[in-house]
Amino acid sequence: MRTDMEIQKDVVAELRWEPSLRDDDIAVGVRDGVVTLAGFVDSYGDKWTAERVASKVKGVKAIANDLEVKLPSSSTRPDPDLAHAAVDALRWDVAVPQDRIQVKVEKGWLTLEGEVDWFYQKEAAERAVRYLTGIKGVSNLITVRARPTPSDVKQRIRQALERGAEFDAERISVEIQGNKAILRGTVRSYAEMRDAARAARNAPGVTEVQNKLTVDPGVYVDV
Length: 223
Prior knowledge:
10 strands; 3-stranded mixed sheet; GMP Synthetase, Chain A, domain 3
């Protein structure tokens, strides 16, 4: 079992290793494996990147991202300009269905609304606007259209987990309730917990994933 001090040291090292981040204003706290990121970053993209980087560290069970976006004066843009930029970014992304997403911007905060057929399309929409200059945050309120869930969707999710080299599928159980998939079991890292949920969301008919996986780095230790 890794100590909080060891996890904190590695998270700080990973943040410093990431070339796109200026880590001087990022403070890292760890308690019982839960990482808290605090301080200031220059963009929403940096805030998201910091969380992604921290999630890769062994022993991290969850992340509280309390980073605040403080835009440099050179990055500040009027809301109408941000809205136009977001619409263009969505239009140019082949994974985002055309004319299905609405964009709202208020004081630099971007909200996405609409309905799509697949969860990956919802993720793609947020990814398309995440690094736009001038945004302070993104609220992804896009819904995934409910469809009949195939009778073998549980098996399809299990097969997807078994194909993933990063998972021990035997340690993950899958339960289906209507259009919701529930994951239980143990994984090695927070990143694996997140990726397992993404694999379940890609199953046909699944519109919601309840992730009850727990993180235990020791489950994969060779003896």
